[in-house]
Amino acid sequence: MTNVQETAAGTLGRSNRTDLAHLHCEMLRIRMFEDRAAGLYRDGVIRGFVHLSVGQEAVPVGTVAALRPDDVITSTHRGHGHVLAKGLDLTGAFAELFGKETGTNHGRGGSMHIADPGLGIFGANGIVGAGVPIAAGAATASLLRGDGKVAVSFFGDGATSTGAFHEGATLAGDWRLPLILLCENNQFSEFTGTHMSAPERMEARAAAYGMSFHRIDGNDVQAMADAMTTVVDAVRRGEGPAFVEAVTFRARGHYEGDQLKYRDAELAASWAERDPILMAEAQLIAGGTSEAEIAAVHASVSAEVEEAVATATAAPEPSTGSLFEYIRTVASPVVEADLPVDAEETRYSRAVKAALRQSLLEDPEVFVAGIDVGEGGNVFGLTRGLNEEFPGRVRDTPIAEAAIIGAGVGAAMAGMRPVVEIMYSDFLGVCLDQIMNQAAKLRYMTGGKVSVPLTVRTQFGAGRSSGAQHSQSIEAMLAHIPGLSVVMPSTPADAYGLLRSAIAEDSPVIVIEHRLLYEKAGPGFALDHLVPIGKAKVLREGSDVTVVSFSRMARESLVVAEKLAGEGISVEVIDLRTVAPIDWETVLSSLAKTNKLVIAHEAVSDFGVGAEIAARAVDEGFWSLDAPVLRVGAPFTPAPYAPALEKEWVVGQSNIENAVRRILAITP
Questions:
Q1: Which of 169, 190, 156, 158 is nearest to 82 (CA)?
Q2: Interatomic CA distance for residues 413 and 141, integer angstroms
Q3: Coiled-coil regions in this chain (predicted)?
Q4: Domain harbouring 545, CATH code
């Protein structure tokens, strides 16, 4: 049953855990910070976008007053108030806006991306609504650990239209997460005024997600603190997620420089009379505080802000040599042992399950989540039985890919090692923001303050008439994103070892399996078997031509090489295993030996991994080349459904063999 609370000043009484004088001071710090930021932006000191929350200060201050220091928040592009209320240092915040090395995030985040996970600040976010699934992930970590923490996701009324918001809220409702969705209804979604029926829509949405609903006067800081204390306590007790609508007003434009031509002057004037700082000061005076005492607080906070500006202004810029810092964590060295000669052969699918099971056994911070991975055991049966063996740690999700990845990101930021599954790699497009703009960039944008030990499992493969939306090879798109590693194993041993290494990695790894290999067998392995990410393997030594491939095509290339060996043609076959980063040393060393290079992959040739390898070969390996580099890949069309057309489209052994014969026919 939805609980609707209409909360105004004094309705819930005064909390003993809050003090109006303290709340007033905290609001002043935010207001004066933003007033100075506005002037510094105008003067060209701050170069990037600046979105101010002037007029909304009571919402973050009142909310944080109800939180513990170890509770988590996610913020928005308009996030200064949230992060400062949560304890962010003023000097570090100014330095971050200035792009200085001493900034909160060493100048890598700026105004829209400022974060300090050590303070429970899991990031302001330049993508509207994107923080909701991440906060759900932090709440998931709390739920699994039973540590009593609460997560709060701040967002504007406009964010409630986004898919990320809906998916994150759906997941929170389904899993009964300790999460508070806090909508700052500031009357504007960028340049568009909030519709008059928006409050009713907010309440209805909360009911649909199975959440309690609370509407609070977002300009009365004491009312905000009191109401949020009640909400937070209920969520912390395990009563499920809550939806809070804080009704407030955005006094300035969507961004600094906004001409406000859409703004109604009478509306702005009416809200100006309810400025949260003026309201708090009126309450303080009514309670016996003198105007002189209030003036003294203004002077003290102003001095603090000016000192922070001066210190930040004098701080050094990041050094040019630091450009590549904070992209990924430094991986621990991995030694790949020889496979035991007496081990029984195993299937690829069983190797994947064994890797998941062993990681769940060894590390309580590992959990598995995805569509049908629990009771259904995965669409291919790979996780069957794991939910019974590890109750609560193999979790079925709604069909909500953005929430699946986002929750993985948030849980990883909280120190867990989530393994999340996207059923088909084609579906990664649905959640690309959470992969590309969140998982891959958060370590960089926080200046190394956070690690994201997230493993994303998915699969691909053409040849079964699955059509254009279930057959794509999109590894090149993922490999193009700085901050991600992408692995594509071809054998059961590599599937096991690479997945185990990915789970142990402190940065995000995409593991792309091939569904046509699931029932293929290969040599067995020991339970401690690991394969280093970024290290290729020479499957067969050769001297006439090098064939570089990965996943299914590596196996096909090996078959071709064995066949051609009967004709006296010596083909060296390299299985990349990792397509980002590529093991350039192994590839270029082989090219230096054979002087001819063929690259084979299942994806379309145009703009693929093969194109990148060919470019590097022409650049760094130019003097080794005795022939043009040849690529084997699918035609540049979507994958067809009709079996006759798909047979023409899918590349395999004959295409690789033809390329080898063609390149050998070229005489230098």
A1: 156
A2: 9
A3: none
A4: 3.40.50.920
